[in-house]
Amino acid sequence: MNRSLRCGTLIFILLLQVLVTGRPAAAAAGDLIADVIVPDTWPTQVAPSVAFDGHYLYYVTYGTAVLHRIDVPPAGGTTYATGHLTIPVTGASGLMTLAYDAGRDKFWAVGNDGLTIYLLDKSGMATRVFSVDPVQDRPGFQSGQYAAEVKIAYDRSDDTIWYSPDATSRIYHYSTSPDLAGTAQLVAATPYVDVGVPPNDMNAQCGYSQSSGIATGGANLFVSVAGCNYLFEYTKTGIKAAYYAYNTNAGTSTQDIECDNLSYGVPVFWIRDAWDGHIRAFEQSGSACLYGGGQPGSAPSVFPVVEALTATAFPVHQYSHLVAMPAQVNAGDLLLAIFTNHAWATVTPPPGWTAIGTTLNGTVVRTSRLAKRADGTEGGTTVDFQTSVLETAVAHVYRISGWFDDGVLTDAIADAGVIGSGLTPDPPALDPTAWDVENTLWIAAYGAENLGDTAGYPTGYSGGRYDPSGGLVGRCSAATARRNGAVASEDPGPFQNYADQAWVAVTIAIRPRAAQ
Prior knowledge:
This protein is mainly beta. The chain has 3 helices and 34 strands. A hairpin with a 3-residue loop joins β2 and β3.
């Protein structure tokens, strides 16, 4: 084989390896896999945080009240962030760092005081959980230059938080539950670990010892050090297990760490640089570090759960329709309203609700689908669904938990509607574009021009419910049923109606929460 042919073959093989594995053929533990530049400018790019929820990267800028979300970048060279979404934070004046909790599908966050610990959901709602008493809860604390800049890691193995003030050498270990005073509880067995006490110090590798970022997602802790191109692995009792050379940005200011075993062909650590606006992924070394604080038992995603179904009928022609919510609603639940009204009237989404879809059959019946991520105040209340003209109506409201809550309802809900007439309202086939084969909750529904009752539900569906609007004129009716199915698409069978009349039939898909 001549030299040019050998070179061409070698280049082809290397390119093929990159395409197949999503990373350079020579990549090894500690090597750079991906690099993304966030869309922030000075001084907000001076930020130490990064988090990964199994689908997207998140970060907050330095002590601000805005949550940022970006797409996971492709493997290879440096790219600019895509899919950038800014989410205002309420309930906290500012946040410093984040750690994703896969079990709760929320972030643990440190306030800009370095002392307040919040649970932050993906809509930006921050709920204070406890505060760290700077004297009682940080024994042996020695303030560093940036000690209010605290990094945290969530540990799902025992539902605890590792709390690391920047540029100090002691990492504290707290329960996620406050004590009776509302302050942090040190874990009695392992209240802290030290990274500056020989023989478990970092001096030989870095010339000094400190913690700049911390992550866990398995048996051990991983600690980054600003200005040092080594990543350290510690046991949870403070023994230095190993250290690894990392091809960081010339060893400048590596900060927060988050684990990701999903995005690429190899598991990576996401490491945020404080100064240059980059978030980089490095191939993991040592013990496995799984995203979200670790995945006990590597449990797959489960089906969304219908916690309640509440129906309301409106027999009188009116603009205002006070739709009853389920008696109990938790923050983070999905509320899905299937609202059928007589004639052609349109429906105005109430404040906080999102219109998912609406289908009109001529001028005789309309079925609309609307949804809301609950804030927890809705239980036992009514919500006004107003129609554009006076009409009768009937509403079914589903309360659903375990759904895919990434802050964008249309990522979690897909639907389709068709019209027809006769005795067999037949919901259409639906193939959600946002996901493929997952543990999906499928809901079949129809709204009819008049009354008629439901003689039968789609084969394989359960929880069937029929409700008429009542009244004497201009009446309508609706029915729903559901099933769990780990399939990419669904085509429910027909309902059976006692009355030959015009109808709207609907298929709705609810995506499950990511694997835990």
